[in-house]
Amino acid sequence: MFLGVTASVTNWDADGTCCSIVLEDNPLVDFVELPDTCQGLYYCNILSGVIRGALEMVSMKTEVTWIRDMLRGDDAYELQVKLVKQIPEEYPYKDDE
């Protein structure tokens, strides 16, 4: 939403704990070309950290990895989000006092 990008969520697994987020456009790479010596670099890895951090704020421990990247010659940007565990919420105070 903040980047002005439309994403679609696809490829849910049977357990409902793993899915893919496909980005049709990515404004972070508008003027970027990776040289041949940096083909192992995931330039937009900041997006996976943002998604992981946002889900941790709502008590979900996840793994976010890049599946496809247009900078590497793929046809789209695709992130895989896998739920590792649901973190129980802890409150720093007691309600009965």
From TrEMBL:
Its main location: endoplasmic reticulum. The keyword Plastid does not apply. GO terms for biological process: Golgi vesicle transport. Keywords: Endoplasmic reticulum, ER-Golgi transport, Golgi apparatus, Transport. GO terms for cellular component: endoplasmic reticulum; Golgi apparatus; TRAPP complex. InterPro entries: Bet3 (IPR016721), NO_sig/Golgi_transp_ligand-bd (IPR024096), TRAPP_component (IPR007194). It is found in: Endoplasmic reticulum; Golgi apparatus, cis-Golgi network. It comes from the Eukaryota. Pfam families: TRAPP. The keyword Protease does not apply. Belongs to the TRAPP small subunits family. BET3 subfamily. This is Transport protein particle (TRAPP) component.
